[in-house]
Structure formats: structure tokens, C-alpha cells
Amino acid sequence: MRDTIKSKEYFDEYILKMSEGIKRFEEGIAAGKYLNDKILFVKDYILQKKIGIIIAKYSKGDSIEEIKKEFESSLDLFGEAWDDSVYESNIIFASLAYLLNLDDGKLNIIKNKLRKSETYDSLLDFILIGNKSEFDTSKISFPRPYKKLVKSINDEDRDAFLKYLRGWYKGSVDSAWYGTHELVNKYQYYGYWCFEAGAIAKRLGFIDDDLKNEQYYPYDMVHFN
């Protein structure tokens, strides 16, 4: 177990329920249940559920190698149906792709998809490509919530990085996943992980031995080779 809030049994049930939901929607598509103009929406919904399962498996303590395989299996659906209008989701997907050591070809496929978004920016580009010489602090779509993370990149400032990481949950109060661990008899919580912090720590080569048990920090994924 990597998560400290819920039990293994909870995550097993979460994964089962999400998998059953995905199966129903896939069967609905195959049966022609949805109008053509709704199919991409349904496929994006399926993809979001798949990402939830991937994160839940990380929380549960599953092998990162197996998590990587599952993530890679979602790339075709990502290319077809990903809704790139939600910046936070783009950040999570890009960070997972880098932390799971996808090869450069796959990272470029993701970049080429995400760069079509109106909010594609220097932060997403740095996570995916890692070219610090092209990092431009004036090209950040949402500078306020990511201010400390941007500073940590621009100045290679570990203190700013730690402030971002440790304030991440509190600063995410408007996110759809915020507080889901408190819901009773509902399966929406898949774990709280600041994947973008992990991606930046890995890109910048920050020493993170002291963060092995840090809440929200995906230490095992940062050190996956």
C-alpha cells in the first residue's frame, strides 16, 4: 500500500466498480447505443475512468511496471478522444507519461495532442520534453496556482518546490477530486498524488531521500526506471 487513507479492500472495490462501468460503456458503444456526436464524449469518460484505475493501482501498491503497461494501453484512446480543455488533467496525464518512462516517441505523440489545446504552455512542455533552455515563465497558462512550481523550475529552487508540494492539496480545493476521501459509500477517491511535483523533481534531479514518506509525493514512481 502506498496510500495511507483508504484500505486495500477499498481500492479493490473502486477498481472493480470502475472496470464494470467501463465495460458497460464499451458495450454500449459496440451496440450503437450512443449518437455519433456523443461517442467521443463517452470515450473520453471511459479514458478518465481508466486513468482513475491507474492512479488507484498506484495507491494500492501495485507494480509500477504493470501500471505502465496499463497506461500505455490507453494511448490510442487518448489520441482519439482526450478532452484537452481541462488543464489539470493535461498536467496529470503528461506527468504520468514522463514518470512512467514512456519513450520519446510516445511522449511526442502526447505532446502533439496536448499542444492543440489553447492552454498548452511552457510547464506542460517542460514536463514532457525537459528542455530548460526553452522554459519561459511568461508562457504559463495558470501562473497563480503553479507559481511556486514555476519558480522551482526557473531557479532550480528546491524550497519553492517543497512549498508547492506541501500546499498542493489545500490549494486544490476547486478540483473535482478534492475531498473525495470523505464521501461515504461512494467510490470517487483514487488517491491524492501530486504527479507534477514528481515529474519536476525528476527533471531537475532534486535529491528527494527525505521525501520517501512525504504525503502526496509519488516517490516510487519518481524512482521508476
Q: What would you note in describing this structure?
A:
The longest helix is centred in the N-terminal third of the chain and has 25 residues, at 36-60. The chain has one domain (8-222). α6 (104-114) packs antiparallel against α7 (122-129). The protein contains 11 helices and no strands. It is mostly helical and 225 residues long. It has helices at 8-30, 36-60, 64-73, 75-81, 87-99, 104-114, 122-129, 147-154, 158-167, 195-204, 219-222. The radius of gyration is 17 Å and the shape is globular. The protein is 57% helix and 0% strand.
Q: With helices defined by DSSP (H or I, 4 residues minimum), what is the helix count? A: 11
| Overall outline | globular
Main sheet, how many strands, which sense, barrel? none
Helix content: 55-70%
Which residues form runs of ≥5 with pLDDT under 50? none
Number of domains: 1
Number of strands: 0
SSE topology string: HHHHHHHHHHH
Determine the N-to-C terminus distance: 20 Å
Radius of gyration, in angstroms, nearest whole number: 17 Å
- Content-based structural category: mainly alpha
Oligomeric state of shown chains: single chain
Task: Determine the strand fraction and express it as a percent band.
Answer: under 5%
Pfam family, one: PoNi_C
Domain PoNi C-terminal: 121-221
InterPro entries: PA2201-like_C, PoNi_C, PoNi_N
Domain PoNi N-terminal: 8-107
